[in-house]
Amino acid sequence: MAEEAVFDLIHMEAVSYVFQGEKISEDEAVAKLEHMGFATGYRLVERLTRESGRFKDELDIMKYICKDLWVTVYKKQIDNLRTNHQGVYVLHDNRFRFLSHMAAGKQYLQYAPRYLAFTCGLVRGCLANLGVTCVVTAEVTQLPACKFQIQVQRG
Amino acid sequence: MAEEAVFDLIHMEAVSYVFQGEKISEDEAVAKLEHMGFATGYRLVERLTRESGRFKDELDIMKYICKDLWVTVYKKQIDNLRTNHQGVYVLHDNRFRFLSHMAAGKQYLQYAPRYLAFTCGLVRGCLANLGVTCVVTAEVTQLPACKFQIQVQRG
């Protein structure tokens, strides 16, 4: 729990630092956090998978993200993984840690994207390192639950 | 080790993000990282000490920083604590984690302060929350060893 706290707090500081920046729009700030997440994910997965075997296929990689990676970073697994078997994967986290500090209430929903951007980048970075090029978006339905959608880019 | 990696990497991204900023001097960037560390430390120690007892005295607080706090954040204890018993404490870390990724060599020494600023703030924030107002500076002698000097501000 203590270790989680350190990571949570430095992440929150990064979010607040990026949004404090002068002359930066909401979209730019979100993009910058996404980029920080991408770099973190890219290098993290390199360390984590150094000694593990290769993955069987794309679905196998997604399962790795939902289990091993999520446990390493967020101390829990993704609660539900869905796919249309055509390159779209939806990861449901019923209690996403970076949202769990937010009070439930519709008035806070507008700020949720700030707390999802780093993780969208993290997932995209991990997948990029594993050879999967994709777009990752996130959506909050009811705090602190959210879903991450991965759209794999073919060819 | 995996958890350490996540924290190390997000810290490195924060450093690189702050230094990428346009029109920001080295001193300003270091100050911003110090501030991020302060906020993180202030809130972290609040969570960590919520259920522990009160501290006996200032030295007792410093020992807590060197042992419990350092283990929580950096997975090792401070190697040596010295004090002049007049409000100056020097904490030696023989292998500071945020420096351990840097190649040894004098040409890299100039960049070391970037990787110490967050931690100076972290220590200052922890101590502020525990009622000790101080100035924290850091110095590298030989990578990856460094020392943090705490100067308590009286009255």
Question: Can you lay out the helices and strands and say which pair or pack?
Answer:
2 copies of one chain form a homodimer.
Chain A: H1 2-20, H2 26-48, H3 58-74, E1 80-83, E2 88-93, H4 112-129, E3 134-140, E4 146-152
Antiparallel strand pairs in A: 1-2, 2-4, 3-4
Keywords (chains A, B): Endoplasmic reticulum, Golgi apparatus, Neurogenesis
Family (chains A, B): Belongs to the TRAPP small subunits family. BET3 subfamily.
Organism (chains A, B): Chionoecetes opilio
Describe the protein in words.
Chain A has 155 residues and is an alpha+beta fold. Chain A has 4 helices and 4 strands; from the N terminus they run αααββαββ. A 4-stranded antiparallel beta sheet of chain A has the order 1-2-4-3, with helices on one face. The mean pLDDT of chain A is 90. At the A-B interface, helix 1 and helix 2 of A face helix 1 and helix 2 of B.
